[in-house]
Amino acid sequence: MGGASMEPTISPPxxxxxxxxxxxxxxxxxxxxxxxxxxxxxxxxxxxxxxPDLPKxxxxxxxxxxxxxxxxxxxxxxxxVVFYGSQTGTAEEFANRLSKDAHxxxxxxxxxxxxxxxxxxxxxxxxxxxxxxxxxxATYGEGDPTDNAQDFYDWLQEADADLSGLRFAVFGLGNKxxxxxxxxxKYVDKRLEELGAQRIFELGLGDDDGNLEExxxxxxxxxxxxxxxxxxxxATGEESSIRQYELVVHTDVNMNKxxxxxxxxxxxxxNQKPPFDAKNPFLAQVTENRKLNEGGERxxxxxxxxxxxxxxxxxxxxxxxxxxxxxxSLVDQIGEILGTDLDTIMSLNNLDEESNKKHPFPCPTxxxxxxxxxxxxxxxxxxxVLYELAQYATDAGEQERLRKMASSAAEGKALYLSxxxxxxxxxxxxxxxxxxxxxxxxxxxxxxxxLQARYYSIASSSKVHPNAIxxxxxxxxxxxxxxxxxxxxxxSWLRNKVPAENRxxxxxxxxxxxxxxxxxxxxxxxxxxxxxxxxxxxxxxFIQERAWLKQQGKEVGETVLYYGCRHEREDYxxxxxxxxxxxxxxxxxxxxxxxxxxxxxxxxxxxxxxNKENVWKLLNDGNAHxxxxxxxxxxxxxxxxxxxxxxxxxxxxxxxxAVDYVKKLMTKGRYSLDVWS
Length: 677
Hints:
Layout: H1 2-6, H2 12-44, H3 69-76, E1 80-85, H4 90-101, E2 109-112, E3 132-140, E4 144-145, H5 150-158, E5 167-174, H6 183-194, E6 198-199, E7 204-207, H7 212-231, E8 245-249, E9 282-291, E10 300-306, E11 319-322, H8 328-337, E12 345-350, E13 365-366, H9 367-374, H10 383-390, H11 396-406, H12 410-422, H13 427-433, H14 441-447, E14 454-457, E15 468-474, E16 477-479, E17 485-487, H15 489-495, E18 507-513, E19 527-530, H16 537-551, E20 559-565, H17 575-583, E21 589-594, H18 604-610, H19 612-621, E22 625-631, H20 632-650, H21 655-667, E23 671-676
Helix pairs in contact: 10-11, 11-12, 18-20, 20-21
């Protein structure tokens, strides 16, 4: 009460004085608090510079893109540009051959990687007289562009450019055993025309399941006359051998500047830096290499690659690419036949100083390194290689034989097919069977194609094995018609990778290639997996992942596997693992076809037919996703035909309707393929 009665008698000056005093105390408090926080921040904060910047975690800067292929063509007097979309090097090889052809018609060509240029400059190509753009486009996987053509493909899809001044031609490289045969070549040809470009010669469709080399030669021999007619030019003479590179032998060289097998940056295998890709592979150590089959003549193996500290991430269904090495005995034999010191350090330098490609492979290096790590010495050489080598055969009969096989005449094509392709003669076999053919080793190294990475479906889940990538492979080994024993480069090389015996000899250069082969987004969606033989690989990863999801308490849908092998007691891969997953309930159905354990062969498609009612129920009622992995030529096609029959029978559809139904599943991502031929 007293306080209340006194409050009205306080004068205004007294109130102001009390407020001044209060603010002073607040100021002191705030200043003290701020000072304390600043002191703590300055002396006790976790300083950024205290975190060590480990050399291993440095990133490799992306390569700088060239400014403009138009400016380059103007500067170097070129009027034909041949772009290539290449995954295994064949499209690039064809592009180089076409660009070299141009000189025979008074034209000048250049091969170009679309990844290195801005393709929107195509609208400016008409600024160059008698200009032409040729596209050698390979199709990868299930109708996808190759890695180096992805940006070009994206641009074509989005572009609204006016290409009315552009003259073009397309040669596609594909394989008829695949669902989307030559999809990339067909798309580029169609899209360029839609954008107003003028096609001067029909689309070429090469089929690697048949004879890709013959398809290319047949197209090429009609393509150039069409170019001549369009531009009013004539051939200047016979095809002649023109060297693209000059040899420089290094007698006094710093060995620290010499390539010893690296794919890109010098010493990249000694000083590894992410990100890891095709030009900068990671050296993974093999920690396990075990034989999977219990009997039989074949060798099926399971390898585990350690990717710890690499920053490499992968998902189930991705592919691992490995860079193999050629058999040292084959390399030695080539050196011996040609009388060459394989340890000579040399460089092959491009005679065209303006070319982006300064060397055919990393230089300087030794002939031994080039033949071991950089060049393909095991595949039958293409006709252009035979043509160039013919000049070195001192025996007239052998020279004529080589020239005939390199010609476009029907007799020559037939001879090349039988003597080289079907007999599987590699360069060593040709040198052995033609004693007078002794080319200079530097020209041989210039002509041979690059040794390519080999792709394998990853047989593990990163949820379960974040620091390892598993591979399932079968060693390739066969006898040729000439009685020679040919071995697969990569599988023979991988077979000899013994863990821990010698660190350097158990290292594998590798990188991961992303795939569209993916488990459904919802774990509760049923999956039907069909993968005979080593086609089981991605499904081991899928099942591991579904088991992990189940452990996390997620609702996991039915997981159904159709697997096939020859004999139950010989090549039943991952038998114990699959039995355990089945017993634990992760694998709800395990259907295995042993094709040769009875008089009548039984394959996975037969088991699908046997369980057709259940298959339809999962597909129609459960919205199941279908996955097929393995042989494209027979198995994948037979399985697809079986699904047509099941859909037609239980969906009450005609055959064309059933086909359309399955195609729509593919479009929606519910029917996925990871196949090879």
